[in-house]
């Protein structure tokens, strides 16, 4: 069964779950050129189709026509997210489909949208680009510069000093979340997506991926920061 038929027959929400799209972002997703309301059993798809027609919020797209990296990249069996992305690109790429996020335009939202373009990029300690790989802070540094046009510190501990502190109960998609993974505060960073999920470059042998903030991460939680709309950020 193709992904398009799966989405129509199983409903939009189930399709998003299969694609590892966080539930917190599902409410803002539509498929360009695809009427998800065709399946009358898909109430979510119907509501989204209606809201996308009447919404005045800007629509941001994540293209499925290109690789998630700037270079040729192939998923393997150990990378289920990459497999799904590759399959989606193969089936939708020739049809001009895009994932669309209808959300208010803020620095944090743009960061959340931008970082999703790099799911599946390999982890590399000290890495700062899609072609060579990312470490956790290299990913954030790259996305902030490329998608927000702001220059932020390169190291996670320094990134934890910028923006505005955010209480965990008030987290929003795009907030930076920090953890202690190396015996030091703020030694790991990711981007919050909503629904207690975040995107990060986890460790050697892994790829940029979405994870739940599980008990493992709870024990290592150090805080969160929200970036401003300013185009310049002071280095520390």
UniProtKB/TrEMBL annotation:
UniProt-recorded name of the protein: C40 family peptidase
PROSITE patterns xref list: NLPC_P60
Keyword annotations from UniProtKB, A to Z: Hydrolase, Protease, Thiol protease
Gene Ontology terms, MF aspect: cysteine-type peptidase activity
Domain NlpC/P60: 105-228
InterPro entries: NLP_P60_dom (IPR000064), Papain-like_cys_pep_sf (IPR038765), Peptidase_C40 (IPR051202)
Organism: Oligella ureolytica
SUPFAM superfamilies, alphabetized: Cysteine proteinases
């Amino acid at each position: 069964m193709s992904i398009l038929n799966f989405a129509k027959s199983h409903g939009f929400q189930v399709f998003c779950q299969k694609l590892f799209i966080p539930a917190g972002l599902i409410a803002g997703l539509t498929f360009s050129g695809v009427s998800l309301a065709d399946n009358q059993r898909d109430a979510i798809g119907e509501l989204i189709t209606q809201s996308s027609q009447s919404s005045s919020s800007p629509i941001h797209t994540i293209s499925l026509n290109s690789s998630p990296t700037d270079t040729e990249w192939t998923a393997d069996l150990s990378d289920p997210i990459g497999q799904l992305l590759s399959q989606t690109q193969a089936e939708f790429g020739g049809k001009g489909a895009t994932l669309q996020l209808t959300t208010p335009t803020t620095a944090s939202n743009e960061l959340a949208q931008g970082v999703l373009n790099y799911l599946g990029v390999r982890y590399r300690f000290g890495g700062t680009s899609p072609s060579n790989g990312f470490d956790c802070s290299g990913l954030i540094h790259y996305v902030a510069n490329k998608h927000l046009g702001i220059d932020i510190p390169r190291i996670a501990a320094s990134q934890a000093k910028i923006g505005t502190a955010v209480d965990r109960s008030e987290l929003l998609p795009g907030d930076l979340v920090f953890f202690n993974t190396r015996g030091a505060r703020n030694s790991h960073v990711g981007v919050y997506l909503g629904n207690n999920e975040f995107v990060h470059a986890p460790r050697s042998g892994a790829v940029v991926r979405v994870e739940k903030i599980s008990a493992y991460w709870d024990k290592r939680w150090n805080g969160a920061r929200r970036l401003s709309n300013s185009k310049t950020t002071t280095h520390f």
